[in-house]
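tokens incoming
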């Protein structure tokens, strides 16, 4: 299973992203790839949504793996202090 973040992981896209993440969780796979290669911006609401998705996946025994996280995503996550929470600190 794979889910794409698109170019903006922000409050403006939160509802659409939430739906994508819920659909991914409902596929009942044990592995989900998050494609973040096109992300140009991550804000606090987007980071919270990603964190909630990762936590929910963990409770459902679904492994989440990042697929090509963009430099913008990595920089914004670091700026927000969310690298570790979003499991981006080793990428």
């Amino acid at each position: 299973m794979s889910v794409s973040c698109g170019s903006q992981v922000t409050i403006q896209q939160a509802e659409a992203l939430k739906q994508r993440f819920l659909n991914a969780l409902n596929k009942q796979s044990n592995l989900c790839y998050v494609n973040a290669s096109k992300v140009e911006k991550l804000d606090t609401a987007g980071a919270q949504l990603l964190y909630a998705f990762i936590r929910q996946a963990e409770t459902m025994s679904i492994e989440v793996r990042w697929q090509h996280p963009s430099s913008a995503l990595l920089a914004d996550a670091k700026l927000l202090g969310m690298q570790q929470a979003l499991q981006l600190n080793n990428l």
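note: The chain has three helices and five strands.
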